[in-house]
Structures are given as structure tokens and as C-alpha cells.
Amino acid sequence: MIPNGQQDALIRLCARCGGSMSEIDSLHQQAGLPSLEDCLQEAEKLKNEDDVLKCVQYYIISSQPEMALEIGLKFIIDKLCKDDWLLNDVYPMMSLLGCIRTDSIQHHAVAKQKSSLLILGAYLGAFEAMRRQYFSIVVSLFSNARFVMSREPHDVPLTNDHIQLAIEAWHAHHLDQPKDQHTTQYHPTEAQSKMYKDLKHRAGTETWLVGVGTDCVSGSHLPTHSDIHISYLTNRRIDGQAFFLEDGRSVISLSEALMWAKVNPFSPLASGEKINPF
User: Fold this and answer.
1) Which residues contact residue 138 at a Cβ distance below 8 angstroms, ignoring those fewer than 6 apart?
2) Distance between CA atoms of residues 146 and 119, nearest Å
3) What is the pLDDT of residue 184?
4) pTM greater than 0.70 (yes/no)
5) Exposed (0-12), middle (13-18) or buried (19+): which is 184, by Cβ within 10 Å?
6) Where in the chain does DSSP place strands (E)?
7) CA-to-CA distance for 46 and 58, rounded, in angstroms?
């Protein structure tokens, strides 16, 4: 019998692995998990029970991982439709769906589900970034969600105006105020203050203090020499080591890549590819 914590980690690991059915079944056997078909049968049994997360866990490592996407997205969207949702209500499911194999979401038949997954990954990732105090990427995550929303059909109950207000509220409360007493200081509007309070409430507080604070890799403040790279996220010059995205041209700093990957597994290019700077 595998302890629950260890089994969850093994499920997430196996969900990311591709290969033939026999290869995956062999991997499952070594991990102490049921075969692909047995996972599918177990997921079907759990479908009518209350434990949606457990059901999605078995679907995501079964021969039909797209069912995990369908059920998991519905769970998250239903939560977001309620006024009192919190990040803790939805992030465990979002984190699990982020483990789905890339090839499982690249089919035309699941195009809308893929868009919804990428939007939610970035949107909820922004709240997780707030909680972990990765403040430098919060706006980039919100902007990424808004970009996918404007480009692709989806089922996410969000609007461009809502995300725009979230971005403005974040900017208003994290803007460097002038130190000169003779210079007019900026004050957030009532709507911005209300939105900011709502964002912080939904995000909550990180209890694992080791994971709190901006990632700053060694040499990230050192100037570059011959190669000059502009961050895809901030449009600013990158000091220190750069991280190339999957198109081979777009670049972000390694510090940005590490923080992004910890809160949203999907690339900032919204291709559905995973980002792995580790």
C-alpha cells in the first residue's frame, strides 16, 4: 500500500510520461499503480462519487486522459462561478491538470478545452504568484490569460475587463511612489482598491515559508556581454542568464522562468508546451 502523499507524487510523475501502452503499463507497475485500462475502470467507478480529484487522478493516468481534462475543467469553472471561491478551492485540481501530457491537448477535438486550460493555468497562476510573493510575474500571468482569451474560444467565466481591472489594481498598489514630497503621489481608485483587496483575499497566505519570495539565480544582476536579450514577459533587457522558450527565439530570464514554472506549468507562448527550466 503506497502512502497517499507518495502516491499523489507518483501519479503526477506518471501522468507526464509518454510512450506506448506497454511502456506506460510497465512504468505504472514499477510505480505500484494500476495499468492504463485498470486506471480507466477505477476512474469510471469514481465518476459518480464525490471525490472529483481522485477521479481525475485516475483518468489522467488512464488510456483516456482527455476525460481528466473535461471533468477537471468543469470542476474549476463551477467553483469560479461562485462569488466566494478561493485559490485553495481550485489550485490542487489546476496543479493536477497541469501534469497532463502535451500530446493529449494538441488534438483539434479538445481545442476549446486546451484554451480553457491555458487561461486557467495563467489566471490561477497569478494568484499563486501573489501568495508566493513572485510579484514580478503577476501582471505577466494575468496578461497571458487575457491574451489566450482574446485569441481562442473557451469556456472560462472571465472577461477581458475583469482581468484588465485586476492588472490595473495590481499596478496601482505596487507602483513605486515618488520620494519627493513636492511630487504628486498616485492614489488607487475605489474600484482598484476593492479589486486588490479581493485578489489578496482569494490568493490567501502561503504556509510553506521556504517557497516564499522572489527567485533570484546566481549572476542574475550581472550585465551580459556580447549577447543582448529582451524578456518576452517584460520587454526589458535581461541581465544574467537567459532562458529560451520552445520557439527558439523568445527569451525570458532564468529567474522569471523558474518562478513561472512553479506556478504555471505551461509556456508563456500559450502553445500548450510545458516550460521546464529546472
Assistant:
1) 126, 129, 130, 170
2) 7
3) 54
4) yes
5) exposed
6) 242-244, 251-253
7) 9
- The pLDDT mean for the chain works out to 90
Show the cell assigned to 148: 489566450
Provide the terminal-to-terminal Cα distance of the chain, rounded to the nearest Å: 31
For 17-50, the pLDDT digits (tens) are 988 999 999 999 999 999 999 999 999 999 888 8
Closest CA to 247 of 228, 229, 273: 273
> What is residue 220's predicted lDDT score, i.e. its pLDDT?
53
Mean pLDDT calculated for residue range 2-11: 76
SS (H, E, C) 202-219: HHCCCCCHHHCCCCCCCC
DSSP string, 6-53: HHHHHHHHHHT----HHHHHHHHHHHT---HHHHHHHHHHHTTSS-HH
| Burial class, 145, CB count within 10 angstroms (exposed 0-12 / middle 13-18 / buried 19+) | buried
**What's the pLDDT score for residue 219?**
54
Round to whole Å and give the CA distance between 134 and 130: 6
Would you say 70 and 113 are in contact if contact means Cβ atoms under 8 Å apart?
Answer: yes
Angle at 18 between CA 13 and CA 23, to 5 degrees: 95
pLDDT digits (tens, 9 = 90+) for 81-130: 999 999 999 999 999 999 999 999 998 889 999 999 999 999 999 999 99
